[in-house]
Amino acid sequence: MATTAPAEALLEAPADGWRHRYARHPVATFLLWRVAAGILTLLVVTMVIFAVLQIIPGNVTQIVLGRNATPDRIAAINASLHLNESVPTRYLSFLGGVVTGHFGDSSAALAQGQTLSVWHAIRTPLGNSLVLAGITTVLFIPLSLFFGMVAALRAGRPTDSILSLTALTLGAMPEFLIGTLLIVIFFAQLNLLPPVSLIPAGQTPLGNPKELVLPVLTLLGVSTAFGSRLLRASMIEVLGEDFVAMARLNGYRERRVVFRYALRNALAPSAQILAQQIQYLIGGIIVVESVFSYPGIGSKLVQAIQVRDTQMVTIIATIIAAIYILINILADLAVVLLVPKLRTRA
Amino acid sequence: MTRPKAQMPRFARTTRGAIGLVIFAFVVGVALFGPLLAPHGYATPIGPPGAPPYGGAPLGTDYLGRDVLSRVLDGGLSVIWIGGAATLASYLVGLTIGLVAGYSRTIVDPILMRIVDVLLAFPALLLMLLFVGGLGAHVGVLILGVTLVQLPGIARVMRTATLEISTRGYVEAAVSRGERTSWVLTREIVPNIAPTLLADLGVRFSYSIILVASMNYLGLGLQPPAPDWGVMIAENRSFVSLNVWSVLAPAVMLGLLTIGVNLIADAYVRTSTQSSVRATRRRFIRQRVLRTTAAD
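^ Those are the sequences you sent over. The predicted structure of the assembly is below.
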């Protein structure tokens, strides 16, 4: 009775049709798998972070205390950091703390006989960093699109050469170098903008726009350089496709050909690359914040490493890694949503 | 019969490649021979701190009164050799992992690749900061960190290339005439994936330099009084209004280095994909014709 099977299946379908429709939506399935994989990755990442920072160095207490080490203080710190327990127990309690939002106390403060909750210390910097990253991302995407498109439409002409060479130069330089050159120009020569972005306690960076200009410009320099180069390449590829030629032959206006036909198709492969750039921003922000002494999570991390604040470094590294993995997932989702072909394959 | 004239490699005959080569040669020359030409010791104060250029010090003095010119001449080698060593190490390890993973066809492949994937889950700079945070700021830790950052990309590309090459006839011929696996890998596969290997060497080298310089700048790499360009920029940045050259001179040198390497890399990739460039150009001509006809 093989021939009747499809009919039966059709009859059955309406009964739990909604379930097919929602629970098995390919994008939802994809997202579910991706989130599961992301959580697993994060778990492995926390193990690596914990191992590198708290197991390999050996005597963490000695490192934390430095010259202040006396036997009874070592014992006290050992107890407060639970260093007397076995490695798996310590890892599990660290993991439990991270999951439940108990981030522990700063080791550097403990070494000086004070208690400073890590969460308390990083709450404001985390917000400041998100502001910086947000502004940069909002500006970076349209700028990359614009420059990439202009260069692609003028490919092989002087405009393209100038844009491409500028992008190559900016993209080649380390962020701190661009930041330093901006300080030399805008502070040392013109005296227009402050060389350090000091934001008074209790104020948000948004209330101090002048302090934000140079950090944002620096981050934009490097990321727009990469973004526009990649968009130019994929735009050139698409402009040579037959459907673009067909659109032109149909007599559509150039603007319509460029935006409706070329750009939309060039965008899909670039989405992943643009996402990579946003990920790159995470690394860039660490350096740029330090260049301008911007009170963010990146400069906090560098300071914590300099004073060997193990707990602080562990927590900040975990947070940054988690954000990184989250952006990865969002980027993949954006690509799937942008490219209809990929939806079915998921 | 005339012998073919000795020619520069193809990338060096493009404008970009030639300019890049000249810039790179200049910076490496300064880094190599600068220490011999430096008029003063890099740690000796010779005048007032932060003095602008004067007769005895053409680039002025830094925040401790040391000669900026001497420190710039002394400070190039560190970032080039650490960056170079780290790039070499990451290629050696990455190539090995890629070869083994791509050629083995066993459980070894997925295991190696998942380990590599874990490294990819970290932002590059965070991975480096993590190792410096755990192991302290030493040259060895810098090299280890850069190697771990660069390794996943290289291993993945090499694995894909190995997978592709290992199905070729000449590899199967070598296997069936009973050559040892090590022979097959070194004589048949490595020479054939070499072009893929070289394609992004320049970009990776420049990225290694950027990572090392950034760590030095953050104070988590080489420590003062080392005359490193990154260290110099960091320690003089608060005194930039006193003597701008104490920051500008090392910054320009470092910028020239990475730009030179990138220009060479760009020219190399462009010339090695010459045919596809011609195809693009053909497409453009067609496009321009279409645009003019469509306008009529």
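Chain A is about 75% helix and 0% strand. Chain A touches chain B through 59 residues (CB under 8 Å).

Shout if you want it in another format.
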